[in-house]
Amino acid sequence: MTQPALQIFSPNAHSTRQLGQQLGQLLQPRDVVCLVGGLGAGKTTFAAGVGQGWGSTSRLTSPTYTLVHEHHRSADFQTLYHMDAYRLETPDALESVGFGDIWEGNGPILIEWPERLGEMLPNEYLWIEIEAESELDENQRTLRFWSQGERAGQLLAEFEASRK
Ligand SMILES: Nc1ncnc2c1ncn2[C@@H]1O[C@H](COP(=O)(O)OP(=O)(O)O)[C@@H](O)[C@H]1O
Ligand SMILES: [Mg+2]
Asked: Is residue 16 within 8 Å of 45, Cβ to Cβ?
């Protein structure tokens, strides 16, 4: 894989959540944010921050058993889709459970385990990998960002600018 466009060190869960919050404030309808990393990496922690920054009236939790959670906010009628594809049997199953059209929904989309979507994944997305790298400190993570497509590139640039 190519070099990440952005790499951020996170010393603890609070910091990861805060990064999510900063990104959440910038999300537009149909933005796709992929969260990659093993079990316990911090994908849902980051997603919870995104929900907070976006203004969700409900907390984002782990949607492992429901595939997609929908969240709302008081500012407008958008929906924040939070998907956990961990238990998705095949990419096609997304259609059969009725989530084939969330890509055209009125709101941003967060996806944990996007690798499971295969061909169903759209062409444009922000790709964020979260990795624990230190055995000395179990709270340390590195977040690496890549963007695919023009809008995701713009989103990443805005995110970087918002952190300065
Ligand atoms: N720097 C960090 N970033 C994110 N989570 C962290 C960090 N340090 C410790 N943690 C903990 O690791 C766990 C991550 O869980 P979760 O976000 O549900 O992971 P995932 O969704 O990737 O399976 C949480 O218990 C969180 O408090
Ligand atoms: Mg999770």
From this structure: yes
Domain containing 124 — which CATH number?
Answer: 3.40.50.300
Answer yes or no: is 1 within a domain. no
Burial degree of 72 (CB within 10 A; 0-12, 13-18, 19+): middle
User: Considering its fold, how many domains does the chain have in total?
Assistant: 1
Is residue 107 situated within a structural domain? Answer: yes
Range of the domain at 125: 6-162
pLDDT digits (tens, 9 = 90+) for 80-115: 999 999 988 888 888 877 777 889 999 999 999 999
CA 94 to ligand 1 center in whole angstroms: 26
- Ion ligand 2 neighbours (CB, 5 A) are 43-44, 62, 112
Ligand 1 pocket, residue 10 CB under 6 Å? yes
Q: Could you tell me if the CB of 13 is within 6 A of ligand 1? A: yes
Atom of ligand 1 nearest to the CA of 140: 1
Would you state the pLDDT for residue 133?
83
Q: How confident is the model at residue 78 (pLDDT cuts 50, 70, 90)?
A: very high
